[in-house]
Amino acid sequence: MELDPDYTFVPLAPRHYMGIENKNTQRNFMKWGLLGNISIQDFCFNEPFQPYNKYHIAEQFFKDDKVVSSLLLKEGDAWINKGIAAATVEITPVPCTVFNMSFFDKLTNSENGICGATGNIRKQCDLEIDNFIVSDKLRSMILDEDSCEYNLFSSEEREEFIFRLLQLLVLGGVLCQYEDEVKPYLDTIKIIYKDLVRVHKKELNYELSIGTTVLQVVARDARGEAFFPSEPEQRQNIGFLLIDGTNRQITTLLHQFGAFHSW
Q1: How far apart are CA 135 and CA 137, in angstroms?
Q2: Residue from 209, 168, 210, 171 nearest 189 by CA
Q3: Which of 17, 166, 206, 217 lies 20 to 30 Å (CA to CA) from residue 237?
Q4: CA-CA distance, 256 to 259, in Å (whole number)?
Q5: Closest alpha carbon to 199 in 169, 162, 168, 159
Q6: Distance set, CA 186 to CA 105, 107, 241 (Å)
Q7: How many CB atoms lie within 10 A of CB 231?
């Protein structure tokens, strides 16, 4: 019987994500209430990784001493290290199979009723769902299960990592200033996806393959309290692990719905 690898982790120096740190991206984050509420950290690990090891590596990650002593968590307006080791880790595999932005073509197709021919997002009467004001067809597609727009994307498509990014940006944070056109959301998703997801070209047939394994996680301490993310019942409090087996690196992506930040 093959044993799971004994993974250990080392925090890496802060990496410069050129697209995410771009001024336009940061300006959009501020507009959507996300600025200062997203943390991205990188770690390397010691043993080979295969996708079937994903549950094991996530468990070990949140219990590793070096991760515990360096993982940043939100405390008020600041990101600090709280030194919390996980007692349990809830792990949900997230499909990451999309290669390009054509995934959203049916979103921008005016015949589907969400956007007009120029990319403007169609408005509707206000409706409150999960403490979010739904005043346009795009947010209706994301939140309103009773709407016609909700079924534009299949249940499998809605699970995709790139769709999760759409939800994160469109719903935003506190005092989110929603867009009238869909283009800023899609442009920013493309930038984030390119920064975080590794795409490889196979040598034999030059086909593209995605080398990033994505997990949505909820890590809890010995008292059963969630800390990565905290208060996960709020849909915008969300934590991901992105595992790059080729380079033996793991990236955390954590958003905590919180206070508004300016430049």
Answers
A1: 7
A2: 168
A3: 17
A4: 9
A5: 162
A6: 11, 10, 22
A7: 12
Q: How far apart are CA 70 and CA 28, in angstroms?
A: 28
Nearest to 84 by CA among 244, 223, 260: 223
DSSP structural state of residue 145? T
List pLDDT tens digits, range 110-158: 999 999 999 999 999 999 999 999 999 999 999 999 999 999 999 999 9
Mind listing the pLDDT tens digit for each residue in 2-37?
578 999 999 999 999 999 999 999 999 999 999 999
Helical ranges in the chain per DSSP H: 23-31, 54-63, 65-68, 105-108, 137-143, 155-159, 161-171, 183-196
Q: pLDDT (tens digit, 9 = 90+) per residue, 212-242?
A: 999 999 999 999 999 999 999 999 999 999 9
What angle is formed at CA 25 by the lines to CA 20 and CA 27, rounded to 5 degrees?
A: 135
**Structure-token pair, residue 93:** 């595999």
Contacts of residue 207, defined as CB under 8 A and 6 or more positions apart, other chains included, come to: 201
Residue 210 in tokens: 């995605």
Whole-number Å distance between alpha carbons of 223 and 159: 30
User: Cα–Cα distance between 74 and 60 in angstroms, integer?
Assistant: 22
For residues 10 and 46, give the distance between their C-alpha atoms in angstroms, rounded to a whole number: 9
Model pTM score:
0.94
